[in-house]
Every structure is written in structure tokens, then in C-alpha cells.
Design goal:
Layout lengths: L7 H22 L3 H25 L4 H26 L6 H24 L8 E2 L3 H17 L1 H4 L11 H17 L4 E2 L6 H13 L4 H25 L20
Antiparallel strand pairs: 1-2
Helix pairs in contact: 1-2, 1-3, 2-3, 2-5, 2-8, 3-4, 3-5, 4-7, 5-7, 5-9, 8-9
């Protein structure tokens, strides 16, 4: 296989995103849930940066395109499912197993369909919710629940184990997972610096003082809720193109 030197940097970012997802799984298994959540969100930023760099360097490659699918499944399918299961869902018995399994199966189905029916790789919009949204929603909710900040703020209702808020979170999660495999049309999430850079900044704030991190997580959750559950119904969206197996794509698109 001929090596495209311009693709080295994007591919390295993609591999870094893969490792971030892997270490999130490792941290979840050792019950370090806050750090595991941070690594998933770090993977999300790296997964976005690889495509940006691929376009800037004109370093798109078929290898990077295929590798990106495995990153998405690891970091935004498996890692959030294991984080949710180890931190909360195991307490729900059978229903916890069902929801965690649904997270994995919905993500795998969404990514498989994406590779087949969207030759533009999301550049003209998405058929079904991108996997990063549901994965990020679950991740940030677990992060907040285990950060200790809601208790300090007197938010006794903020719990993922039982009560109205827990029902809201897990029902919203189920709805996002259904939307992943639906035919609902979503707009392409722009990588314009005025939009992308604030998102990067909010994720980086997750690694700072915990109260600041909690505020950043709440803002990210609000955006995820809007994009995943409200945005496709707020205005008419253009349908993404469909066709045979897609051509080469930038390393980050998913």
C-alpha cells in the first residue's frame, strides 16, 4: 500500500482517538468513571480534528476512512455503553443489560448503514443521528452524576439511579438510539472555527476544576439534546445522497 505522506497527521490523530476510546474502557472497568468520560470526549475532539487536518493537508485516504469507522464504534459505541453499564445500568438488572446492548447494536447498525448509503460521508447531511450524539449524551450524564458537583449544588434530583430525572435521561437515551437507526434527516455539523472551536474549548474545560467542568458538561448536554431530539424537527432538512459503497472520505467523517 502506497503511503500518502499528507495523510500521516490525520491518521495519527485518528489512532490517538482510538486509544482514547480504549483507555476509557479500561478506566470504566476500574470504576474511574469521571476520567473514563473525559477520555471519550477527548476522543470526540480528536475524531473531529483528523478530518479538519485531512482537508487542510489534502491528506484524505481510504485507509483513514476505514479506520475512522472502527474509532467511532470503539469510542462512541462500546466505550459509552460500558461506562453506562459499569456506573449505573448494572443496577437495573435485565433492563440495564437491554439498554447497554441497544447502545452497542444501534451504534454498529448506524455505522454499517452509513458506509453503504451515504457516498458523501455526511457532507450533505445525515440519514439518522450521528453516533457521537448519543454517546456524548450518556457520557456527559455519567460524568456529571459522578463528579459530586450536583450534590454540592443541592441538586438532590440529579441522579441516574431512580426518580423522574433518571427516567428522563434513560428515556432520552433510548430515543437517541432509535434516531440513530431511523430515517430522520440531520444537517451536517459544521466544522467552521466559530462553531468547532467553542466545542473544543468546552471539552478541554472538562479537564479543569470540577465546577467549571460541570458547567461545560451541562452546556454540551444542552447542545446534544437540541441537536439530537429537536433540530431535525425544527426545520425541513435536505435529504443526504444515497448510493453504492462510498468513495474515499476524510479520516474524521462519521
Amino acid at each position: 500500500m502506497k503511503i500518502n505522506k499528507r495523510a500521516i497527521v490525520p491518521v495519527m490523530l485518528t489512532l490517538a482517538a482510538m486509544l482514547a476510546g480504549f483507555y476509557s474502557i479500561v478506566l470504566s472497568s476500574s470504576e474511574q468513571f469521571v476520567m473514563a468520560a473525559k477520555f471519550i470526549m477527548l476522543s470526540m475532539i480528536l475524531d473531529g480534528l483528523d478530518g479538519v487536518m485531512a482537508r487542510l493537508l489534502k491528506g484524505t485516504s481510504s485507509f483513514g476512512a476505514e479506520l475512522d469507522t472502527f474509532v467511532d464504534m470503539t469510542s462512541f459505541g462500546l466505550a459509552p455503553a460500558l461506562l453506562a453499564y459499569h456506573s449505573v445500568l448494572y443496577q437495573f438488572g435485565l433492563w440495564g443489560h437491554v439498554l447497554a446492548s441497544f447502545m452497542v447494536l444501534s451504534g454498529a447498525s448506524r455505522l454499517s448503514r452509513f458506509r453503504i448509503v451515504d457516498p458523501d460521508r455526511g457532507q450533505k447531511g445525515f440519514l439518522g443521528l450521528p453516533i457521537t450524539c448519543a454517546g456524548g449524551w450518556v457520557t456527559l450524564m455519567v460524568f456529571l452524576a459522578h463528579s459530586g458537583v450536583p450534590e454540592e449544588w443541592g441538586w438532590d434530583w440529579f441522579t441516574l439511579q431512580a426518580g423522574p430525572f433518571a427516567i428522563f435521561v434513560w428515556m432520552s437515551t433510548a430515543a437517541l438510539l432509535v434516531l440513530q437507526v431511523s430515517h430522520v434527516r440531520y444537517a451536517k455539523m459544521t466544522k467552521h472555527p466559530l462553531v468547532f472551536l467553542p466545542g473544543v474549548a468546552l471539552v478541554m474545560l472538562l479537564f479543569t476544576e470540577i465546577h467549571v467542568a460541570a458547567i461545560a458538561a451541562l452546556l454540551l448536554c444542552a447542545f446534544g439534546f437540541y441537536f439530537g431530539l429537536l433540530s431535525p424537527f425544527s426545520r425541513r432538512r435536505a435529504a443526504p445522497a444515497t448510493g453504492d459503497k462510498p468513495d474515499v472520505k476524510p479520516a474524521m467523517l462519521s
